[in-house]
Specification:
The mean pLDDT is about 90. The chain starts with a strand and ends with a helix. It is an alpha+beta fold and about 70 residues long. Helix content is about 25%, strand content about 35%. It has one domain. Strand 2 and strand 3 form a beta hairpin. Strands 1-4-3-2 form a 4-stranded mixed β-sheet, with helices on one face. One of its GO terms (molecular function) is tRNA binding. This is Peptidyl-tRNA hydrolase. Keywords: Hydrolase, RNA-binding, tRNA-binding. Pfam families: Pept_tRNA_hydro (PF01195).
C-alpha cells in the first residue's frame, strides 16, 4: 500500500498559491493516469485505486498548510 499526500490550502481562493503545489501535483498525477473521483472523506479529498494488485491512496487534507505540517 502506498499513501501519497499532497499538502496545500483548501479553497478556490488559494488554488494558484505556491503552497498548493502538493494539491496541483496530485491533480496532475490523476490526469496523467486518467483517474477521477476524489471523495470527501477523513476531513480531506481522498482517492483510492487498486492497480496491478497495488493499493494507492491519494489524500489532499482539508486543513491549511500551516496546520498540516
Amino acid at each position: 500500500m502506498q499513501l501519497i499526500a499532497g499538502l496545500g490550502n483548501p479553497g478556490e481562493k488559494y488554488r494558484d498559491n505556491p503552497h498548493n503545489v502538493g494539491f496541483r501535483t496530485l491533480d496532475q498525477l490523476m490526469d496523467a493516469l486518467n483517474l477521477e473521483g476524489f471523495q470527501r472523506r477523513f476531513n480531506s479529498e481522498f482517492f483510492r485505486t487498486n492497480q496491478n494488485a497495488e493499493v494507492t491512496l491519494m489524500l489532499k487534507p482539508a486543513t491549511f498548510m500551516n496546520c498540516s505540517g
